[in-house]
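In this section we walk through a basic example: taking a raw amino acid sequence and producing a predicted 3D structure, encoded as discrete structure tokens. The instruction is simple. Fold the sequence below.
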Amino acid sequence: MSDKDIETLLSKARTLEAEKRTALALLRTGIMISTVPLSIFTLLISVSQVYDIWGPLYQLVIIISIWLFILGLGILLIVKAFRQIRSCDRALKAIKKSIEEIEKER
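The resulting token sequence is shown next.
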């Protein structure tokens, strides 16, 4: 194999590294989105002494359903990011192995 093949493999590796950075940004976003419902829940608990919780029950149900939706979205983003990172790591390992084989042939 020639230097051209190694250059092609290295360019693929750079592309995979960029995809991995994007997945890490997605992971960071998912973690941030998952912490927002916890902050809202903490706020609700801290001001619960000021008002009657059972009075506006329909509002509480709406808030809890929005809270669960945001939490689910954050968890979905985290899982998606972990899958992308794992996929990129596997592909990078295969490229590294191919480059090592090319170097042995020389």
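Looking at the output, two observations stand out. Residues 48 and 106 are 72 Å apart (CA to CA). The chain has a mean pLDDT of 87. In the next section we compare this with other chains.
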